[in-house]
Design a protein that fits this description.
about 200 residues, mainly alpha
């Protein structure tokens, strides 16, 4: 019995594993460097680039949509949300009895009636060409709006709604009348413009 025959059963599995590893390693290298694999790499790289640019476009369109929704919220719902917050904050004051009901601003503010489709919306041109209203006494609702702590824009929009001036989407979808346009439409009411 020789030394080789003694150790041959011990290293035979390692030799077999080395042959298999070499065989499959060479086959893997050939597969990875073949023309088919190179074409596949090109396709994968193109797909990665397309996916990246589609993700960028989706992010940009999402950002644009968020901005449009924010503008829509600011134009359509912000004043109503602010009115609700004001109503909630001033609730304790409205619960206390007051000697003079005109002291309580929140109790005198009534929500504006929604305009119906059969109402005639008065445009800027109609107001400018209408007869001059120089009456210095203002309706109670207008006085309440003018005495409120609202922003000038909100006051102008509420007064415009009161007088039937269409300010929302007046210049197209999402394009409302500016403060200057509303002031021009209210030129027939100089008493209002004097307070604002």
């Amino acid at each position: 019995m020789t030394l080789q025959t003694t150790f041959e059963p011990l290293y035979a599995p390692y030799v077999e594993a080395g042959h298999l590893l070499h065989k499959y390693g060479v086959a893997t290298y050939d597969a990875l460097t073949s023309d088919t694999a190179k074409d596949l790499y090109k396709i994968i790289w193109i797909l990665i680039q397309v996916t990246f640019w589609l993700s960028v476009l989706a992010a940009l369109y999402t950002l644009k949509l968020v901005r449009q929704l924010k503008a829509y919220y600011d134009a359509e719902w912000a004043s109503d949300a602010n009115r609700l917050i004001h109503w909630v904050i001033t609730y304790p004051n409205r619960c206390r009895p007051s000697a003079d009901p005109s002291d309580n601003l929140a109790s005198s503010i009534e929500p504006l009636a929604p305009s119906t489709t059969d109402e005639i919306s008065v445009t800027l041109e109609n107001i400018q060409t209408s007869t001059n209203h120089t009456n210095t006494t203002l309706p109670k609702r207008v006085q309440t709006i003018l005495n409120s702590k609202w922003t000038t824009t909100r006051k102008l929009r509420n007064i415009a709604t009161f007088y039937g001036i269409r300010w929302r989407n007046a210049r197209g979808e999402g394009k409302h009348l500016t403060n200057a346009n509303i002031r021009a439409a209210l030129a027939a009411y100089p008493a209002i413009l004097a307070v604002l």
